[in-house]
Design brief:
2 copies of one chain form a homodimer. Chain A is 35% helix and 22% strand. Chain A has 7 helices and 10 strands. Chain A has helices spanning 13-23, 71-74, 78-90, 100-106, 122-128, 154-167, 169-178; strands at residues 2-6, 30-35, 39-42, 48-53, 62-65, 93-96, 114-115, 133-134, 140-143, 146-149. In chain A, the strands form 2 sheets. Chain A has an 8-stranded mixed beta sheet, sandwiched between helices. In chain A, helix 1 links the parallel strand 1 and strand 2. In chain A, helix 1 runs parallel beside helix 6 (154-167) and helix 6 crosses helix 7 (169-178). Chain A starts with a strand and ends in an 11-residue tail after the last helix. Chain A binds chain B through residues 5, 12-14, 17-18, 20-21, 24, 31, 33, 40, 45-50, 118-120, 139, 150-154, 156, 178-182, 184, 188-189, and chain B through 5, 12-14, 17-18, 20-21, 24, 31, 33, 40, 45-50, 118-120, 139, 150-154, 156, 178-182, 184, 188-189. Strand 4 of chain A pairs antiparallel with strand 4 of chain B.
């Protein structure tokens, strides 16, 4: 299984590195760290990560979209949203963390679906699309192939939920134990 | 306050990115992402992060040392341990996560001090130094300027503990709330 972790400038660190830690522990996973432009991408916290250009990777299987300050600009970047729509359409599963849900909502692919996002940015995310059935009181929400989580660290709980759904709760609990993480439930917030 | 996050090949992702997320939220913190060689450093999970050479940064204030597979080789790398000893000596506070405590123990600076580490690698870490008072049943331990945490995600709890000790529990709780993290107590394990 290929898992593509999408990076853009001003992404929020833990949004993406929490799920990377968890999802990389699934057997036979190939993780790719991608961006639309390739090369170094800088987080909100100031560190830079080397990324592959999306042209070089397999776009099926899983796509993970972080949130962060960068989403505020990208949500109005037509070219970015257009490219993201293609990526999300090709992926078998799409996981968004925090305000990554705003980008996902902007593609229109969440229309008439349930989704959640960061509690502190909830009104802004809701304002991006009124066609989404936004669920405030949830740590993460699953609808069809779309997994959306609440803010930052909730991405880890969702990642464990994704592992549980696809590979069984035993595997998810084993990963949580291995990283000494106390898994919060889907309906906690 | 300068916080230097130390990277080496085969570091464990969440060990360091959890604390980066939390400690970067302290006001007036300047985070540096450093390594002994500078340039790109690869995690156990396969992503590469750009680092500054230690020669270019201020070595006082805070040093954060992750764990991971890379520690198994580095603990026997005399040059690395010698350089790490200097870094730790210069720092006002040293924080280690997971098996990062093995590297710290090897410097001798933990001799006659209390410390903890990853529960699943505890016997190996203990074997590195019998001069340390190893505390198994703790999520993190503080002794003088040294903060040591249990495995992977326990680093986030310790980082919040560090914030609480230096800037007050209110600030730590505010950061936990902002990232929707449920802070685990010092004596949970």
């Amino acid at each position: 299984m290929d898992i593509n972790f999408l990076f853009f400038n001003d992404f929020e660190t833990l949004d993406i590195f929490g799920p990377i830690e968890i999802l990389s522990r699934i057997e036979n996973v190939k993780a790719h760290f991608i961006s639309f432009q390739g090369g170094l991408i800088k987080s909100k916290q100031g560190h830079e990560i080397e990324t592959e250009n999306i042209a070089t990777v397999n776009l099926k299987d899983v796509l993970v979209i972080p949130g962060g300050q960068g989403t505020r600009i990208l949500v109005n970047d037509k070219e970015f949203i257009s490219q993201l729509t293609i990526l999300c359409s090709k992926a078998e599963y799409v996981l968004s963390i925090c305000t990554g849900a705003a980008l996902l909502a902007k593609t229109g692919l969440l229309d008439n679906r349930k989704a959640t996002s960061n509690k502190k940015a909830f009104e802004w995310v809701k304002s991006i699309s009124s066609n989404v059935n936004w669920i405030r009181n949830a740590r993460w929400v699953v609808d069809n192939k779309f997994y959306t989580s609440s803010g930052v660290s909730a991405g880890m709980d969702m990642a464990l939920g994704f592992v549980s759904d696809l590979f069984g709760v035993k595997k998810a609990k084993q990963i949580a134990e291995d990283i000494e993480y106390i898994w919060n439930k889907k309906d906690s917030f």
